[in-house]
Amino acid sequence: MVGGALLLAAAATLAQGAAASGQSPAPASQATPAERSAADWLMRLHEASRRRTYIGTLVVTSGGSMASSRIWHVCDGQQQMERVESLSGAPRSTFRRNDEVITFSPQTKVAVAEKRESLGLFPNLLKAPDSAIDQFYSARAHGSERVAGLEADLVQLNPKDALRFGYRIWSEKKTGLVVKLQTLDAEGRVLEQVAFSELQLDAPVSMDKLTQMMRNTEGYKLEKTELVKTSAAAEGWQLKNPVPGFKPMSCHRRPAGAAPASDTLVQWVFSDGLASVSLFIEPFDRRRHGTEGTMAMGATHTLVRRIAERPGQDGGWWLTAVGEVPAGTLQAFAQALERRK
Prior knowledge:
By secondary structure, the protein is α+β, with helices and mostly antiparallel strands. It folds into two domains: about 5-220, outer membrane lipoprotein receptor (LolB), chain A (Clam); about 225-340, Phosphorylase Kinase, domain 1 (2-Layer Sandwich). It has helices spanning about 5-10, 40-50, 120-125, 135, 205-215, 230-235, 325-335; strands spanning about 55-60, 65-75, 80-85, 95, 100-105, 110-115, 135-145, 150-160, 165-170, 180-185, 190-200, 220-225, 230, 235-240, 245-255, 265-270, 275-285, 295, 300-305, 315-325, 335-340. It has a twelve-stranded mixed beta sheet with strand order 7-8-9-10-11-1-2-3-4-5-6-12, with helices on both faces. A seven-stranded antiparallel beta sheet has the order 13-15-16-17-20-19-18, covered by helices on one side. Strands 14-21 form a two-stranded antiparallel sheet. The radius of gyration is 20 Å and the shape is globular.
């Protein structure tokens, strides 16, 4: 969860982890802001995202472009639910109830339903006895500022190596809810910014009303994306060398779009507790797969590469590595990925 995704996860769109335990502020670290470690800050942000009810307008600025969304988020002690309405670009409404997600596209009259694995895994990674987040990031508090009319603590998380970006994070002082986040490159330049322009905490959001809206697919063609939980080993893949700090989080098989029904795409997800990388692996198809290389948009880098089954022969696999990490990190994953013998 990185850049825009981190704020969406910690404060809004992807806050679909384990069931919340009420709407009181998260009892994260009792340390003062200046004393908190990187792990302390991240636990506070994750827990706040799962314990608050709010309505807000989120603005994302990345790569010279800007997009905005309206968000309704509610938790009732057992369930997490939210509605995200795009305010720019093509009209789109996304509803999430725990791990159930459905996206409505009014222009095409298509509704896509899928299940996404709980992001409760990320806080669990931070809580793990072998959590190494503080080995890869240092935290430095920078006082407080007002964001969207709210007083917010400001912390900067600096990477200790070249495999990850830095972050400047503003979190609401009382609750820990992330209200603004910037992703920084090695020179401290802002690659991407995500921020609430307006936020109402403890807003009157109705779980029942959102549930009714989510279930109303009348007039839409309903498409379901089937994900099959698996493991990299079961699919015949491994990393010959681990990328420092990044641990495997999940692995799924999903339909590979226009590929034959017998072909499937594998998504293998890694995280260091803050940044994440997804490896998409599918059978190579010369008709669909183009030139190898890397691309960047804001903080998001993408690497595409063919993995030949045998040198000089057709066949093999096509790798798409995506993450809000430096291009060198994706190169490290691509070089380490190999077919199990």
